[in-house]
């Protein structure tokens, strides 16, 4: 009895460390990653691509933003392989170190006026390193939480590392807002923005301290003890018809989620300043408030997905995103900061978490343990190229072509329709059954929770 109580207490303490590690890790990674998006919207066009029309400079800055997303599948493939072969914990320590160093170096890159063409080249190289790191980070962080969770709490536990996205955006936006309020625009442009990037080294040290305390996940430990590790996880993933199908459907399902975040969290900064005539500090405050609201709703909808089913919850979010695209941009045309804030709170702060909260549990149930790290990383990172990385560039191009927001609205509606169809076509397996010794690998896909 005493031993059982001690074991339960030990498990609870370990679970707290796992959740804290997952949240801290993804918060730091997304803080670093989103700083670049905000800097691309606000300062990189002027500092690293001068001599161009302002619109062209913004497009070039967003192009370097997209480069990070192109690098993410490479990171997903590399670290997915390592994570499926060697373990989740070691992989996550490595990705955090790479991300921290790359972000710190971005804060030191001289401008175009200082070193010419070498400046944007160095910026792109640091961005590639960021992309490779985040490509391996996300899959490992969500697996750390989901593979420790019981079968009835995968949605809730899987949503905790997802909260890191909102916290990272909150910290990144808050850092830019604080720095821009503490100095005039000339000082912020000259050196103020760099402080936010350099500060990431402090966050990385804290994250590494916690992450090194985490033990390997039970699912991976059981798989290794049964000597079931895949020799080449990516090859085994592609050989299996069930996994191939879910790889494609998972990528399609993520289109609305990636487009939604990079429209309302990244592109809106540039659009609000250049097209609506709003001040960037006001827009940063709006994004800051939406981020704080997301911190509440992401775990809430993760918990709800344990009752409703992760597939249904995610599909509901994609449908709401599709329906709200037109009225939200219509409200933006009022050019009222109050109206814009209310619209963003609804579509970004509340509706977006319907997709992001259950996403980890949904994608983890698409693949068996021995290829799961590789599978979910490829789903998330390959789709990220067009779902996330290219979104600001595509929207800026559509706005330049049409002169009005309605071509952008059409793109958002298309993305929402594709995601809804792909999500409803999924047939997730029960990953908890896959972790049971001797359980059949795919048997009949589990729809009990759906």
What is the topological layout?
Layout: H1 2-42, H2 44-48, H3 54-85, H4 88-106, H5 112-115, H6 118-146, H7 154-182, H8 185-198, H9 200-211, H10 218-225, H11 233-239, H12 241-274, H13 280-308, H14 310-332, H15 337-351, H16 353-364, H17 369-389, H18 391-402, H19 406-425, H20 431-434
Helix pairs in contact: 1-3, 1-4, 1-6, 1-7, 1-9, 1-12, 3-4, 3-6, 3-17, 3-18, 4-6, 4-9, 6-7, 6-17, 7-8, 7-13, 7-16, 11-17, 12-13, 12-14, 12-17, 12-18, 12-19, 13-14, 13-15, 13-16, 14-15, 14-16, 14-19, 18-19
Structural write-up:
- The protein is mainly alpha-helical and 450 residues long.
- The chain is 82% helix and 0% strand.
- It is built from 20 helices and no strands.
- It has helices at residues 2-42, 44-48, 54-85, 88-106, 112-115, 118-146, 154-182, 185-198, 200-211, 218-225, 233-239, 241-274, 280-308, 310-332, 337-351, 353-364, 369-389, 391-402, 406-425, 431-434.
- Helix 7 runs antiparallel to helix 8.
- The longest helix has 41 residues, at 2-42.
- The protein is globular and about 60 Å long.
- 56% of the residues are buried.
- Residues 431-450 have low confidence and may be disordered.
